[in-house]
Design brief:
There is one protein chain. The chain is flat, with a radius of gyration of 50 Å. α3 crosses α5. The protein is built from eleven helices and five strands; from the N terminus they run αααααββαβααββααα. Helices cover 41% and strands 7% of the residues. The N and C termini lie far apart (111 Å). A three-stranded antiparallel β-sheet has the order 3-5-4. Belongs to the TFIIE beta subunit family. It is found in: Nucleus.
Length: 302
């Protein structure tokens, strides 16, 4: 039994060694990998033929650095004009005198713009609320190149303390003037506001954290009276009684305290007792043959 197994094992080993020697002697030469076609080569093959790429032998690859990719056209002219008008407003804000459109274009480096683009820019400036167009008085017919331009602030004609007081005096109501609106035409107005407040000519509401002015009202310096410092010290030394004590003293004097909540009386008022519902009485019998049905059985309830 063991000898037959040994013979089978020996024959198997010899067959395996023969097969390995045959594989080692015959090596297959692998073909080199074919290069993948580039975008330019495929496009040129499709353009040259009938929509199908040419064979690898007939194809000539185009170098990657020679491929020209098309760029989108420069659009968004309107957005560019809006941006340029914004720059023009910021530049005119710091100018006290009117400026021509050539001076504005010189600041924006737009003298090389085409005439049609310049005309469109000028029309956009004239439509803007923040810019005031002043026509040329020497011309009977205005063109897009005529006239000058001036910044139109939110609070017009206020650039110093005198003009601010005059503007507040002309107001017909008691409304305030925002400091943010003042800074649109008068950027450095905070110093003048502080001086006018110290002179008691204006009333100022300030931001709590920063202390910067926020709103301005007109004030009358004749209504201001200086208080003696000793009186201020005496006033601060006076002890104010508590709220409960003040309420008790007012009630003792038959006066109604302002701090009294009327809802307290409503909660303290006693609730009205609900009236007991009267029992229903039986009506008078009119039919003698129904007396046994209309008889009162209320005394039999448990």
């Amino acid at each position: 039994m063991s000898s037959s197994l040994e013979r089978q094992q020996a024959s198997f080993m010899s067959s395996m060694s023969a097969a390995s020697s045959k594989l080692a002697g015959t090596k297959r030469a692998l073909a080199p990998p074919s290069p993948s076609p580039s975008v330019g080569s495929v496009a040129s093959a499709v353009a040259a033929g009938n929509g199908t790429p040419r064979k690898a032998a007939d194809r000539v690859d185009t170098p990657a650095h020679n491929i020209v990719y098309s760029q989108p056209a420069a659009t968004g002219t309107g957005l560019n004009i809006i941006t340029q008008v914004t720059y023009a407003i910021a530049w005119l804000r710091g100018k006290d005198e009117p400026r021509t459109y050539l001076e504005i274009l010189g600041h924006l480096s737009g003298l090389h713009w085409s005439p049609s683009y310049q005309e469109e820019f000028v029309e956009a400036m004239r439509r803007t609320r923040e810019i005031q167009w002043i026509p040329d008085p020497n011309l009977s017919e205005q063109t897009w190149q005529s006239g000058t331009y001036l910044h139109r602030p939110k609070v017009p004609g206020v650039r110093n303390k005198t003009q601010l007081l005059a503007y507040l005096q002309k107001k017909t109501d008691a409304s305030c003037v925002g400091v943010k609106e003042l800074k649109d035409g008068w950027p450095d107005c905070e110093k003048a506001i502080n001086e006018l407040e110290a002179e008691h000519k204006i009333l100022v509401i300030r931001v709590k954290k920063e202390g910067s002015p926020r709103y301005v009202w007109l004030d009358d310096p004749s209504l201001f009276h200086e208080v003696d410092p000793e009186l201020k010290i005496m006033w601060q030394k006076v002890e104010v009684p508590g709220t409960d004590t003040i309420v008790q003293r007012l009630k003792a004097a038959s006066q109604k305290p302002a701090s009294e909540d009327p809802r307290d009386k409503m909660t303290a008022a006693p609730k009205a007792e609900k009236k007991k519902r009267a029992q229903r009485r039986t009506g008078k019998a009119t039919n003698t043959h129904m007396e046994h049905l209309l008889k009162d059985y209320s005394h039999m309830k448990r």
